[in-house]
């Protein structure tokens, strides 16, 4: 019965979708418009702030905000006022959501040991938003059995609902216990776009390699890439090294402008 309903719904869903290109030229199928994604991002972020401890450490907040502000200043769309929140948690994690929201966990600051390394992570997460990966994920889920739970959203039959599912689709699966991780293509794309953003903002892209070496040490043993939706640490590091020739000139040009230094304190 579930498959029958999905078969009947699929033409309706596809009629409302847009086939477009990501910033790197990869084809994407997107079911949701900018307003819907902004609403999802805003509601998800509001829930996170209610459910998790927000840091009141002014030095840490200022440091993270400084880095995030420099990166978002390089985005093509400057209409958003990005909100940056530091969560007091040992999690080594960060995220960015549609609508202009960035969350960074204090645990990440122990692995990303300087501004360039933290900029690597923030740039990567902002790149997921820039490339509309959240929209792509929720759209993919919509067109599978998992996505049946989101049918009322796509059909406009009740606004944004099923909070946990769309939060997972936006990259917050670890927080809600639902596995909808970004795929390898999306992760690699976010690495490339994030590297460009950090370089344009005056952060040293060469430090991205050190960051992922630190991540590999902190993460322990990792299974083979074949069995993961994410690039292996070694593949990611190799790809980042290969991109240095492309992004180093962007960094050198940005450094001539003497960007604001973000002090960890």
Shape, per Cα inertia axes:
globular
Low-confidence stretches: 1-15, 150-160, 223-227
Average pLDDT, all residues: 81
Q: What value does the Rg take, in angstroms?
A: 19 Å
Taken in chain order, the helices and strands follow as HEEHHEEEHHHHHHHH
Quaternary structure of the protein = single chain
Biggest β-sheet strands, sense, barrel: 3 strands, mixed
- How many E-type strands? 5
Give the count of helical stretches: 11
Description:
With 265 residues, the protein is mostly helical. 56% of the residues lie in helices and 8% in strands. The chain has helices spanning 2-15, 34-51, 58-72, 108-111, 115-130, 133-142, 151-154, 163-176, 184-200, 207-219, 233-255; strands at residues 18-21, 27-30, 83-87, 94-97, 101-105. The termini are far apart.
What's the short version?
By secondary structure, the chain is mainly α. Helices cover 56% and strands 8% of the residues.
Question: Could you outline the blueprint of secondary structure elements for this entry?
Answer:
Layout: H1 2-15, E1 18-21, E2 27-30, H2 34-51, H3 58-72, E3 83-87, E4 94-97, E5 101-105, H4 108-111, H5 115-130, H6 133-142, H7 151-154, H8 163-176, H9 184-200, H10 207-219, H11 233-255
Parallel strand pairs: 3-5
Antiparallel strand pairs: 1-2, 4-5
Helix pairs in contact: 2-8, 3-5, 5-9, 5-10, 6-8, 9-11, 10-11
């Amino acid at each position: 019965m579930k498959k029958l309903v999905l078969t009947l719904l699929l033409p309706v869903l596809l009629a409302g979708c847009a086939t477009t290109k990501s910033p790197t030229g990869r084809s994407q199928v997107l079911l949701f418009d900018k307003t819907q994604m902004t609403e999802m991002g805003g509601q998800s972020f509001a829930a996170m702030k209610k459910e998790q401890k927000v840091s009141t450490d002014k030095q840490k907040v200022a440091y993270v905000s400084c880095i995030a502000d420099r990166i978002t200043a390089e985005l093509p769309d400057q209409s958003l006022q990005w909100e940056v929140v530091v969560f007091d948690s040992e999690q080594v994690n960060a995220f960015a959501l549609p609508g202009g929201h960035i969350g960074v966990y204090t645990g990440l600051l122990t692995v990303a040991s300087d501004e360039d390394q933290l900029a690597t992570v923030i740039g990567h997460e902002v790149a997921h938003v820039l490339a509309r990966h959240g929209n792509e994920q929720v759209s993919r889920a919509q067109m599978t059995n998992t996505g049946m739970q989101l049918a009322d959203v796509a059909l406009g039959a009740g606004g944004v609902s099923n909070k946990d599912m769309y939060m997972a689709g936006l990259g917050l699966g670890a927080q809600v216990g639902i596995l909808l991780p970004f795929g390898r293509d999306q992760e690699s794309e976010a690495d490339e776009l994030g590297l460009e953003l950090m370089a344009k903002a005056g952060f040293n892209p060469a430090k991205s390699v050190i960051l992922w070496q630190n991540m590999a040490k902190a993460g322990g043993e990792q299974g083979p890439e074949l069995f993961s939706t994410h690039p292996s640490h070694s593949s990611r590091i190799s790809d980042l090294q290969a991109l240095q020739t492309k992004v180093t000139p962007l960094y050198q040009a940005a450094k001539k402008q003497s960007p604001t230094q973000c002090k960890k304190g």
